[in-house]
Amino acid sequence: MADVVVAGAAGRMGNRLVALLQEDKELRLVAALEAPGHPALGRDAGEAAGVGRLTVPITADAEAALGKDRILIEFSVPEASLAHARLVARQGGRAVIGTTGFTAAQRGELAAIGRSIAILVAPNMSVGVNVAFRILADMARMLGDDYDVEIVETHHRFKKDAPSGTALRMAEVVAEALGRDLAKTAVYDRHDKLAERSRKEIGMAALRSGDVVGEHTVSFGALGERLELTHRAQSRDNFARGALRGARFIATAKPGLYSMQDVLGLT
After folding, report:
1. Are strands 148-155 and 214-222 parallel, antiparallel or unpaired?
2. Whole-model pTM?
3. Calpha distance 212→196 (Å, rounded)
4. Which residues are catalytic, by number?
5. For 99-105, which contacts have Cβ atoms below 8 Å and span 24 or more sequence positions?
6. Distance (Å, rounded) from C-alpha 57 to C-alpha 79?
7. Consecutive sets of 10 residues in the chain, 267 residues long: mean pLDDT of each?
8. How many whole angstroms separate alpha carbon 247 and alpha carbon 209?
9. 143, 227 Cβ separation under 8 angstroms
10. Inter-residue contact 113 to 136 (CB < 8 Å)
11. Distance between the two ends of the chain, CA-based, in angstroms?
């Protein structure tokens, strides 16, 4: 059994991680974290998740909760995730991070942390989405520059970052496959562009509506036809189950920065 610490334990993803951990035969919940001042501090993590008392109180003391060989699982905000990752590295633990919105500098620091511990960082833990990443590269290479690429994502009204980390990764996959520099070809907003789209731009649009868990569509359009790849998430459980699958992988992995592609053997 590998020991798991869930950060953001009282949040939407944290609740599902706590609940699904009770079904896992290889992982066990040993600690639950929340931000200082959070109203759930002191509550039992199981009761907060609706699965009954687990005698694991929700705490803000990350120093005490994390430890050698313990696996942190976190979906939160970049600053908190990075601070926890630094602490995990100092204590000799492991980490699975599904947080999105990291800057280039923050991603660089996570890569540096991966030189000392096993750390999995993925913008989307869904198995289906990660298969889509692999398929997108093949689609882009086969279709080539004759097809316009547009990416549309929809999430719930509470999501803060836009475009989503998943949409950005999809754009990166397509750009890499087509030999393009995404920093130069990405177009996020066209409201002030009084011109036709350029042949090599990769467009991205972000919609925020109600309680949508997550939808992503990549459209390849040419004159006369359009080919689309769409992933729709109906439940957060698929992200949580993917994270637990990642935790089982990271439990025995050597130090390094890993992705869900590594977990699924798609590299």
Report:
1. antiparallel
2. 0.83
3. 31
4. 155, 159
5. 99/74, 99/75, 100/161, 100/164, 100/165, 100/166, 100/168, 101/77, 101/160, 101/161, 101/165, 102/78, 103/78
6. 23
7. 96 95 96 96 97 97 96 94 97 95 93 97 92 96 97 94 93 97 93 86 96 96 98 92 96 96 90
8. 31
9. yes
10. no
11. 27
* CA pair distance 235, 132, nearest whole angstrom: 18
Backbone angles phi, psi at 211, to 5 degrees: -115, 30
Q: Which of 11, 35, 64 is nearest to 236 (CA)?
A: 11
Q: CB within 8 A of 117, min separation 6: which ones?
A: 88, 89, 92, 93, 94, 95, 255
212's CB contacts (< 8 A; 6+ apart) are 154, 155, 156
Q: Please tell me whether residue 139 adopts helix, strand or coil conformation.
A: helix
User: Rounded to whole angstroms, how far apart are CA atoms 195 and 66?
Assistant: 53
pLDDT tens for each residue of 77-133? 999 999 999 999 999 999 999 998 899 999 999 999 999 999 999 988 999 999 999
| Residues sharing a CB contact under 8 Å with residue 26, sequence separation 6 or more, in sequence order | 1, 2, 248, 251
State the pLDDT at residue 177: 97
What sign for the dihedral angle of Cα 44, 249, 156, 128? negative
pLDDT of residue 210: 96
DSSP string, 140-175: HHHHGGGSEEEEEEEE-TT--SSS-HHHHHHHHHHH
Pull the structure tokens for residue 229.
């790849």
